[in-house]
Amino acid sequence: MTNKEDFSTLINRYFQNDYRERGKIKWNGYFLSDHTSSLVKEDVQRNQKTQKLPRIPLNEAQHILQHSCVNYHIVTVQQNIETTDGYLIPNVTGLVNGFTALGVYINQQFIAYEDIRTVIREK
Length: 123
Description:
Layout: H1 3-18, H2 28-46, H3 58-71, E1 74-79, E2 92-99, E3 103-106, E4 109-112, E5 116-121
Antiparallel strand pairs: 1-2, 1-5, 2-3, 3-4
């Protein structure tokens, strides 16, 4: 037998009997850091407590929304809707996409006029 055949036999025996593929385990380090950071970010968003801003009259809110729509300003809308633990739902921030008789669309999310607590035009 030559050295080449001995080496080939040795390699074949190693992969058949001794080598253990770590499979997914070798990628866990990469997965866990990305996955953990996204879970932390999600948890912060889910547990964020929205502070109540002063309520403004509906006609003033509509005026701000119309002006922001025409001038492509970003707005933040706080809705007067509470979660089960008594906090307001998260504010909606974005561009005004359009209006209906019952509400406004901010980033393709419908917000009824009756639910608007306040509107802030972002700088």
